């Protein structure tokens, strides 16, 4: 197995308990949740490492000019600090690395996926007092500053370049072929950001069948979020069967079949057939 290596079971159980507790808190902390995802992926990330990552975000925030002004001034200040001076940005090759979805590694490498780089921008700017939030454009996460009527968008993957309306339209058209809808520019909920990060990790692992371990923990963390797609239970069941845990996988398939039986009897029966096939593998 290639690094990063997962933590031992006892450590994983503790991390998941803390992840679930934070996700269900009144105001979930985005950086904490992202770092707990990183610790679930990387057994080398201990408590000292978690603290060090938070302190690095604090250190970067301490270098932001004191309340530089309006939305554009905040965007420019963060671009100059993080994008120009510190070199945080992304490259196409970063999509091929699991580390690009792990906050502690993005802080170390100063490279990552758009959404993780956006988390760095958001967390540094928030600590510095900026009116900042994530903007979950289809296919490309960016960061917004200020109220919607004065909104300034930046692309952390491109070093924090300020985006005009035309730039945002091109990003959406390139990802979906559709037009930019104003609703796409609304602030993203922190838990939706975390789910999207976990979806990216699952997509990375799905292309690498030998890393079904990553697929499994990413699904299981997603299931700990207060709101998640029900189909993730089906995905977890399939992963369990794929990894040779036929009994638990079959039980999970049967429970999922019961869940969907009222809305799609045909699909439920097909899932029950998969459960029977999984149990037959024990013979």
TrEMBL record:
Highest taxon, organism lineage: Bacteria
Family matches, as Pfam families: TPR_9, Transglut_core2
Protein's name according to its UniProt entry: Transglutaminase-like domain-containing protein
InterPro entries, A to Z: SirB1_N (IPR032698)
PANTHER family per the UniProt record, alphabetical: F-BOX ONLY PROTEIN 21, SI:DKEY-261L7.2
Domain Protein SirB1 N-terminal: residue ranges: 53-199
Family: Belongs to the UPF0162 family.
């Amino acid at each position: 197995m290639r690094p990063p290596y997962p933590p031992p079971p006892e450590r994983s159980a503790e991390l998941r308990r803390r992840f679930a507790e934070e996700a269900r808190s009144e105001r979930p902390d985005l950086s904490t949740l992202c770092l707990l995802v990183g610790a679930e992926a990387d057994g080398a990330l201990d408590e000292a490492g978690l603290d060090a990552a938070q302190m690095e975000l604090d250190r970067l925030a301490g270098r932001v000019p004191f309340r530089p002004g309006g939305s554009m001034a905040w965007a420019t200040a963060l671009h100059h600090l993080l994008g120009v001076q510190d070199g945080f940005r992304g490259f196409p090759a970063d999509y091929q690395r699991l580390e690009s979805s792990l906050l502690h590694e993005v802080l170390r490498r100063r490279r990552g996926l758009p959404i993780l780089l956006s988390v760095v921008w958001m967390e540094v700017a928030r600590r510095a007092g900026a009116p900042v939030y994530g903007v979950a454009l289809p296919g490309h996460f960016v960061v917004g500053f200020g109220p919607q009527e004065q909104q300034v968008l930046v692309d952390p993957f491109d070093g924090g370049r300020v985006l005009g309306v035309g730039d945002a339209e091109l990003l959406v058209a390139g990802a979906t072929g559709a037009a930019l809808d104003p609703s796409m520019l609304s602030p993203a909920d922190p838990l939706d950001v975390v789910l999207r990060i976990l979806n990216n990790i699952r997509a990375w692992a799905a292309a690498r069948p030998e890393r079904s371990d990553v697929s499994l923990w990413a699904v299981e963390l997603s299931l700990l979020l207060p709101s998640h797609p029900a189909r993730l239970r089906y995905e977890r069941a399939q992963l369990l069967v794929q990894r040779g845990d036929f009994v638990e996988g079959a039980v999970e398939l049967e429970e999922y079949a019961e869940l969907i039986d009222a809305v799609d009897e045909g699909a439920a029966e097909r899932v029950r057939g998969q459960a029977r096939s999984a149990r037959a593998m024990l013979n």
